[in-house]
Amino acid sequence: MTEQQPDPSTSPRYPIAPSRRGADWMFGGVYGTVLASGLLAALEQQGEAYTPFYDASWVLVTAVTAALAHGYAHHMADHRAGSAAHRWRLLGRALWNEWPMIAATLPTVLLLLLAGVAQWEPYGVTAAGLGLNTALLFGWGAFVAIRVGYRIASALLIGLADAAIGLAIIVANALIK
To answer: CA spacing 20 to 30 A to 85: which of 11, 28, 145, 161?
Structure first.
């Protein structure tokens, strides 16, 4: 005799998936930092007018759009039975869980805003931003590794591996431009 599983759509309460904890939400920091680096490198064009406020807005708009698309994709991939209200709550939770991706782009956004106020040169801002983001990638990698239980030496190597992504963007930026 087999025990029959209850149908979740007939249950009076539908559980909401728990928010991501620990290292699970930290991937958004790495993803957002890489996104900001790529946009920073792409938006700075030699020979064109430098528009740091415009660039800052595009970094932020792209981060929000990417976070919404990523959260929505997670929601659709994890489809669960239930009422429409329950599915909307799940969608809200999936979208909220993407905040680290947006937060990780804020150092680049702030750098661009400061560059606009202080009228810094575009090449220096791009170089400083890519260097800052590479350092942040190292920090994200090492911090996450320590957080999930790696020893210090291994965590530093993982941080270096994450920083290598930033270095790859710097090299690509130099080669393409």
So the answer is: 28
- Give the Cα separation of 9 and 16 in Å (integer): 13
* Residue where the block lists tokens 């997670």: 74
- Looking at every residue in the chain, the average pLDDT score rounds to 85
pLDDT (tens digit, 9 = 90+) per residue, 109-165?
A: 999 999 999 999 999 999 999 999 999 999 989 998 998 899 999 999 999 999 999
DSSP structure class, residue 9: G
For residues 19 and 172, which has the higher predicted lDDT (pLDDT)? 172
35 vs 54: CA distance, rounded Å: 16
Q: Which residues contact 135 (CB under 8 A, 6 or more apart)?
A: 163, 166
Query: Quick one: pLDDT band at residue 19, thresholds 50, 70, 90?
Result: very low
Q: Could you give the angle at which helices 152-176 and 122-147 cross, rounded to 10 degrees?
A: 150
Neighbouring CB atoms inside 10 A of 176's CB total: 8
**Burial class of residue 116, CB neighbours in 10 A (0-12, 13-18, 19+):** middle
